[in-house]
Amino acid sequence: GLVEFLAYNLPLPVSLTRWPLYVVIGLVQFAVYYLVFKTLVLKLNLKTPGREDDQDVKLYSKQDYRNRKNTPDEPSGIIIRALGGKENIISVDNCFTRLRVELKDM
């Protein structure tokens, strides 16, 4: 923005471009945005990313991760069981929007 602004406005006379007016409008707009959002965040307690009142953050141990990894209710395990188990799957291929599975017996 700044290089473009300088390239288009400074070579011409101020009477044609009125570029100082754009600078003043930009500064006023900045001040309005700053004051409005500072008021929303601090006075009205607007929840922005990182300021939510969700639950506390839980840090998982390696044991928790391993236990979760071995649970049979993961979506991948459910899908494999629905397709007839590992023995029934011949090949798995994918593209950006599809998962292609070749089965022995449908």
Automatic annotation (TrEMBL):
GO terms assigned for molecular function: kinase activity; protein-N(PI)-phosphohistidine-sugar phosphotransferase activity; protein-phosphocysteine-sugar phosphotransferase activity
Name the UniProt record assigns to this protein: PTS glucose transporter subunit IIBC
Domain PTS EIIB type-1: 73-106
GO cellular component entries: plasma membrane
Domain of life per record: Bacteria
Gene3D superfamilies linked: Glucose permease domain IIB
Catalytic center residues: 95
One GO-annotated biological process of the protein: phosphoenolpyruvate-dependent sugar phosphotransferase system
Ranges annotated as spanning the membrane: 19-37
Annotated keywords: Kinase, Membrane, Phosphotransferase system, Sugar transport, Transferase, Transmembrane, Transmembrane helix, Transport
Organism lineage string: Bacteria, Pseudomonadati, Pseudomonadota, Gammaproteobacteria, Enterobacterales
